[in-house]
Amino acid sequence: MMDDGPSGRVTGEKLMGWLLGVVGLLLISLGIGTLTFSLIELNSWGWGSARLAGLLAIAVVALTTFFFSHRRRQKPMIPVGFLRNRNFTLSIMPGFFMKSGSDIESRDKSRAGQPFERES
Hints:
By secondary structure, this protein is mainly α.
């Protein structure tokens, strides 16, 4: 538990830091989870789907809120300052897109031989 020395009291600053950590965890989980799920369901729903648009909007809002709320914290969950380094950012982007593409491709191959059905 969070305490402030032998008195066992929780200070407001530590409680606020803990709450911001929990909120950050929820935001990053919501953002990455909805983004991943929307990419998985992209083939079955199609680009024009309202469900896809809604999930992508939720992902963008959650991830944007997470990054803006964590960029000035003393102890951020993810040091957003790394993304300011152009070499670092450009070096991780190809891996991100390759992994995303391979996940979608492997899902397509697992559905091979099954008729394509679009939900209405």
